[in-house]
Amino acid sequence: MIRAMARWYDAKIRGDDTWDEVRRAWEGGETGASLAKRYDVGLANLWRRRASEGWERRKAPDPVPEPPEGWDRAAQGRMEVFELRRDEVRLVAVKLAEAMRGRPLDGVPLWHVGFVLAWRAEHLGDETAARDRDWARRYGWTGRFWDADGGLRALDEMDEITMDANSEAWRDDMGLPDGVAADWP
Question: Which residues of the chain have pLDDT under 70?
Fold first, then answer.
């Protein structure tokens, strides 16, 4: 058996359009062997072009594992959590809105008392600020919201006072058991 010698005019020459398609397909995740066969290009040429032209495959994102309870039950649980949080925020908003209209401070959530006092002092006048100070006297720790001259402290100071006086309540709200994360707060 005699083999014919390959001649230069028998070489496979593919245009830039073909190589652009090969590159897009390879970068999209197709294998080199399947592309070489489909586009009738040499596999060695494909690898050579890939190296010389710097082809890079996009990294596929990690798949999201299915929750043990399945997607439908997981979605239902997430909806329940969402609705609970939404309803809690609405209740807080109602209490804050009432307080900001000058209504009694009873029911204002603990963590927002300093903010409401500062807002009311700025927007509702001296008479409301005096009533608020009288209201706050029922709690020993809230008296520290005012300085020696009777002026309301800055909001960040009031937040710190609230946290210092109610650190156990914060730990309970955050679900931190006793004896862990002792430096918080």
Answer: 1-11
